[in-house]
Design goal:
The complex is a heterodimer of chains A (328) and B (254). Chain A is α/β, with parallel strands linked by helices. Chain A is built from 10 helices and 13 strands. The longest helix of chain A has 16 residues, at 180-195. Chain B is an all-alpha fold and 254 residues long. Classes of the chains: A alpha/beta (328), B mainly alpha (254). Chain B: GO terms for molecular function: ABC-type transporter activity.
């Protein structure tokens, strides 16, 4: 795959409105003993962004996030969150951030309202949000946490993280395992907080979640960020696809050469032709005018831009040397 | 440090201790049984083994059960539940979280100890010669068993196994109490080095006004005699505290 299609904007910081960087990480590395979970990550999250960090299990998302949160010190790299060092300046930083860990627990014998009360008493926030109504947990107030369903626990998790209406919110897989209704509620809260000015950094392996919520996203794989940018930037890193059935009277060799086609193959054992294209409209126009001129009908014709899923699978199948850098 | 979150967490820990039936039953039944035992047999025991020995055994027993074992079990249970990790993702400092967690069992133990010793004094008709030393022993002892509990959590994978991992210090403390009062001079000296031995000695001297071998001590001498065992106990607090701080885990091992 070649780099930089015409759709990718020139990568200079000056071309975007200058906003304060809320998270600034350069060359971030985190190791557990001899295993390096995060292997040189650069991450810049601007104020007011909802930023999604995508990746498979074990890609290093949680380690990266927990390092940004100050749960552990990086083994190398430069790191500033709201202008502060998350480990040494934790005391100043924590009142300004909300954290929803991927795996975190409650004291099961406390009730929902006792848990919220405890968290409130442990926060310095002057006007905490009414999080139980925000997350539709009011009717479960008197129930012991150990009796909550998985979705309710996760919502209580989010409730505690957003209680003080933080400037910066970390969400580690906020909707994994949630039913559609709980997921929708979580998205609503994230969108509302964003409107209220909260910057959000979330990890997820639901591509739809990243598409729905985020302004910028990065795909992590094996401890590195492989693709980064706005959704449009990221989609542009992967070619568009055209496919059709090879007409019976036509040998594959006689297919036309299209201007921006990078790869053209007939799927093994079938007569399905698959093209990857750097310019969908141009290639499609050329293909259709060729078939019109020739009087050939292309059966099962499909043309589509790359989806986030394509990019994602592209990244997983790629070796690190081929990784794509997109900046916008 | 801000005191409000410590108190909030302490209150919630007390609530959790109350709702854990095993811990709650133990916390109420143990002093009750001991209380009845003292009320009915104190004089007999006191005259047979010496008041100092009886009182110091009682105190070490309370501190070990209500403070040491309870703290170890509670902290490990919170860690297992990933509740410690949550508390650490909030605003509170590590010290705040720690104090809130270990405060309630320590407080519980101190209250139990004071109540039982009061019953002892009233029923047994034998009041402490040097109450200040006895109070000092209770407070320092509680601090030491709290520090040892934090250290014990390092080698305790889950709440159930706390029954086993607390055994070494549990046994050592009782061996020390026995060695302190019932053995010869050599054994007594050794007992002071063992965690619990120093506390037993200070309590015994504070209560009876006598040295371990029964030789009477003046008021000033009682304080002087308490210095070495207190120094050793403080050393244990520092040692266990530092080691716990070095190796303490906020999350279960994965």
């Amino acid at each position: 795959m070649t780099e930089g299609t015409g759709l990718v904007p020139d990568g200079s910081e000056a071309s975007v409105p200058v906003k304060e960087l809320v998270i600034e990480a350069t060359g971030l590395r985190c190791a557990y003993g001899s295993f390096e979970a995060v292997r040189g990550v650069d991450l810049h999250v601007r104020q007011g962004d909802v930023y999604a960090l995508l990746g498979t299990n074990g890609a290093g998302k949680t380690t990266a996030l927990e390092t940004l949160e100050g749960h552990r010190a990086p083994s190398a790299g430069h790191l500033r969150v709201l202008g502060l060092d998350p480990v040494t300046e934790r005391k100043q930083l924590r009142p300004r951030v909300g954290i929803m860990l991927q795996h975190s627990g409650f004291a099961g014998d406390l009730t929902v309202s006792e848990t919220v009360e405890l968290w409130r008493a442990m926060s310095t926030c002057r006007q905490p949000l009414n999080v139980l109504s925000l997350l539709n947990l009011e009717h479960r107030e008197k129930v012991q946490v150990k009796q909550l369903s998985g979705g309710e626990r996760r919502r209580l998790d989010l409730a505690l993280a957003v209680m003080s209406k933080p400037e910066l919110l970390f969400l580690d897989e906020p909707t994994t395992g949630l039913d559609p209704e709980s997921r929708r509620r979580t998205w609503q809260v994230v969108r509302w907080l964003h409107e209220e000015g909260t910057t959000v950094l979330l990890t997820t392996h639901y591509l739809e979640e990243a598409e729905q919520l985020s302004h910028r996203l990065a795909i992590m794989h094996e401890g590195r960020i492989r693709v980064e940018g706005t959704l449009a930037d990221v989609l542009a890193t992967e070619p568009a696809r055209i496919s059709f059935t090879l007409p019976p009277d036509l040998p594959a060799a006689e297919l036309p050469r299209l201007p921006a086609t990078r790869e053209c193959r007939v799927r093994e054992g079938t007569d399905l032709v698959e093209l990857s294209s750097g310019d969908l409209q141009g290639d499609l126009t050329a293909l259709l005018s060729w078939s019109n001129t020739r009087g050939t009908r292309l059966a099962r014709l499909r043309a589509s831009h790359a989806s986030l899923e394509d990019v994602f699978h592209g990244v997983l199948g790629r070796t690190p040397a081929e990784s794509v850098e997109v900046t916008a | 440090m801000n005191i409000k979150p410590v108190l909030a967490l302490g209150r919630s820990e007390l609530r959790l201790l109350r709702r854990n039936h095993v811990v709650a039953t133990l916390a109420i039944a143990l002093p009750l049984v001991l209380g009845v035992l003292i009320a009915t047999r104190a004089k007999e025991f006191g005259n047979a083994f010496g008041w100092g020995t009886i009182v110091s055994s009682l105190l070490v027993f309370i501190l070990v059960m209500s403070n040491y074992v309870t703290t170890t079990t509670a902290v490990v249970a919170r860690r297992e539940d990933l509740f410690l990790k949550r508390l650490r993702s909030g605003e509170s400092s590590d010290a705040t979280v720690m104090l809130g967690l270990v405060g309630p069992p320590a407080l519980l133990a101190v209250i139990q100890a004071v109540l039982l010793l009061a019953v002892m004094a009233v029923v047994g008709g034998n009041s402490p010669e040097n109450p200040a030393l006895v109070v000092l022993a209770i407070v320092v002892g509680s601090a030491m068993f709290t520090a040892l509990a934090m250290l014990t959590t390092v080698v305790t994978p889950n709440a159930d196994s706390a029954q086993i991992t607390t055994m070494p210090f549990f046994m050592a403390a009782f061996a020390a109490v026995f060695m302190s009062g019932q053995g010869g001079e050599q054994l007594h000296r050794w007992s002071l080095l063992i965690p619990g031995g120093g506390i037993a000695d200070v309590t015994s001297v504070g209560w009876s006004g006598n040295r371990w071998d029964g030789a009477p001590l003046g008021f000033g001498e009682q304080f002087v005699s308490a210095l070495p065992p207190l120094a050793v106990t403080l050393a244990w607090i520092v040692l266990a505290g530092l080691a716990a701080r070095r190796w303490f885990r906020w999350e279960p091992r994965r």
